Inverse folding.
């Protein structure tokens, strides 16, 4: 059973500010979907060693050389608040 | 020929011979798009004047001999989760409602370099999360075969555009079936490449280990043509692989004589609509009549694929959607924010729709301390077992076939209240994303007036065999000639 408090904690981790109604609905949804997904816990995977490299390519390296992207202005144009070439944010430390 | 039946092949011939100019073709397509969009809502962004200008440019390049590709001058509908520099790209979300990307993605650049004319950006479920376009932050699209019904999703807009002649072809993205399923529901051809074939650079990320861009076209040959242009290693996407260059249209008409086709018995259980079942069985019979060897095969763990997907995918979504924080781009709610934390939470609360929030919560929960082993790690292990099942089966057969979707297009609103019921719509497509296999959906006729899709699945990197089998079925059945009355 997943409690509303657990979902609230999860929402905080996910930086989501949910309304009480949303919390209630999402708790229901979470329970419903996880009930369905729980079935995989019955499968014997004791012999399985997850090998992510099998399906994903080996690391592709490139030389560490700085290059001017030429799009700094385009990037800054999309930002809500800028200070020169900096993104401006509210204070991070109290 | 009516614009809704015009293929890339035919259009290219006409342009090459001088019978048709890119400008004329673009005008025809855009006129139709402007006429039908208020009824079908395929497009989020239609910029007729930009497209016309571009078509004129392409005509000049064709005339001067500097451009002679098969895609030159042909209007394409692009799912709005693929970036084009300076052109509004929303990912179907209010959080990116006014976002103008500072760069053009690799696949888009390849098409533009080949002379493609972008007709517009099409509607999708928000961040490609959904099977109907009902999760779009803007509006749902309508199925051209019955406007009370969904076109499928998440690439619903592109599928609608192609099926109704509002574009000659389209691009979509497929993470759990989002190219194949809407193609099936709209009577078009939709294909998902092997994971690693096509660059994701410029594709707004949903689940990075599953996402792939794929073409939506009227015919299998058109699909192979587009695939020729979009596939290939990209240094900007380190999950793409270097493969020998191949012309996927060569040998496409070799037929299926002697081809071993596996029919997974798990795809024909309960949950599969009986009319869809009949259409698929007929399709398999047709393949057999064309000389293929049909064999029933077993994929014992396949029933768990959807559960595996709904653990792995939301975890990746929760990570990928973390970037939408109101700081560098996108919706930023700073007015009532007292702290930096508030900027994040207020922006995300205002900008994300229900499904996005649902999947973020799901993914954050199952990857958090205490639950990680039971859900996410377990899902990765079962994913491996599913891949092993496919490996075993492909030692005995060359291709697998089955239905693309368990039903034909459902009514708008019908599944909106039950997220799980909506998720089940992807039950036959998800295993191919989980395992990275290439798959294609082709029109398999109509069931009560609505399109049915036949899915063909090939082993990793064997798109050539997949196209060959799909082409043989298509030509024998003639179903690609069916189009909605609209």
């Amino acid at each position: 059973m997943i409690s509303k408090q657990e979902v609230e904690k999860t929402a905080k981790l996910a930086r989501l500010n949910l309304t009480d109604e949303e919390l209630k609905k999402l708790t229901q949804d979470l329970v419903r979907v996880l009930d369905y997904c729980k079935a995989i816990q019955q499968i014997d995977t004791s012999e399985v060693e997850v090998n992510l490299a099998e399906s994903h390519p080996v690391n592709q390296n490139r030389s560490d050389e700085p290059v001017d992207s030429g799009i700094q202005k385009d990037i800054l144009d999309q930002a809500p608040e800028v200070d020169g070439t900096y993104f401006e944010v509210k204070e991070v430390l109290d | 020929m009516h614009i809704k039946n015009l293929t890339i092949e035919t259009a290219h011939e006409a342009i090459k011979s001088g019978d048709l100019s890119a400008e004329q073709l673009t005008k025809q397509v855009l006129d139709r798009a402007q006429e039908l969009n208020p009824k079908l809502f395929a497009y989020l962004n239609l910029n007729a004047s930009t497209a016309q200008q571009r078509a004129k440019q392409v005509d000049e390049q064709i005339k001067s001999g500097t451009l002679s590709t098969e895609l030159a001058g042909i209007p394409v509908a692009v799912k709005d989760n693929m970036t084009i520099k300076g052109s509004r790209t929303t990912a179907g979300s209010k959080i990116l409602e006014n976002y103008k990307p500072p760069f053009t993605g690799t696949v888009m650049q390849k098409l533009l370099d080949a002379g493609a004319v972008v007709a517009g950006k099409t509607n999708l479920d928000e961040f490609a999360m959904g099977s109907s376009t009902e999760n779009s932050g803007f509006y749902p699209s309508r199925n051209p075969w019955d406007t009370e019904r969904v076109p499928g999703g998440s690439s619903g807009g592109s599928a609608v555009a192609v099926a109704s002649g509002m574009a000659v072809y389209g691009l979509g993205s497929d993470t759990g079936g989002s190219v194949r399923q809407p193609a099936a529901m709209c009577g078009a051809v939709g294909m998902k490449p092997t994971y690693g074939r096509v660059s994701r650079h410029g594709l707004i990320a949903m689940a990075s280990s599953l996402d792939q861009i794929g073409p939506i076209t009227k015919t299998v040959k058109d699909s192979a043509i587009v695939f020729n242009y979009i596939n290939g290693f990209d240094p900007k996407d380190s999950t793409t692989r270097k493969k020998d260059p191949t012309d996927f249209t060569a040998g496409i008409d070799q037929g299926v004589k002697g081809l071993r086709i596996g029919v997974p018995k798990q795809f024909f259980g309960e949950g599969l609509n009986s009319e869809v079942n009949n259409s698929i069985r007929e399709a398999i019979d047709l393949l057999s009549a064309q000389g293929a060897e049909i064999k029933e095969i077993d994929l014992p763990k396949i029933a768990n694929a959807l559960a595996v997907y709904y653990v792995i995918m939301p975890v990746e979504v929760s990570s990928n959607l973390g970037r939408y924080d109101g700081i560098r781009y996108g919706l930023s709610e700073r007015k009532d924010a007292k702290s930096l934390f508030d900027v994040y939470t207020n922006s995300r609360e205002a900008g994300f729709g229900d499904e996005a929030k649902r999947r973020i919560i799901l993914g954050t929960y199952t990857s958090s301390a205490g639950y990680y082993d039971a859900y996410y790690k377990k899902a990765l292990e079962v994913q491996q077992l599913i891949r092993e099942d496919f490996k075993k089966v492909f030692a005995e057969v060359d291709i697998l076939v089955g239905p693309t979707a368990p039903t034909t297009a459902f009514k708008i609103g019908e599944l909106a209240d039950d997220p799980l019921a909506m998720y089940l719509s992807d039950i036959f497509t998800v295993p191919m994303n989980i395992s990275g296999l290439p798959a294609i959906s082709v029109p398999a006729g109509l069931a009560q007036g609505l399109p049915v899709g036949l899915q063909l699945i090939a082993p990793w990197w064997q798109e050539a065999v997949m196209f060959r089998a799909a082409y043989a079925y298509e030509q024998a059945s003639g179903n690609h000639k069916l189009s909605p009355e609209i």
Remarks:
- Chain B has a mean pLDDT of 97.
- Residues 373-393 of chain B form the longest helix (21 residues).
- Chain B touches chain A through 69 residues (CB under 8 Å).
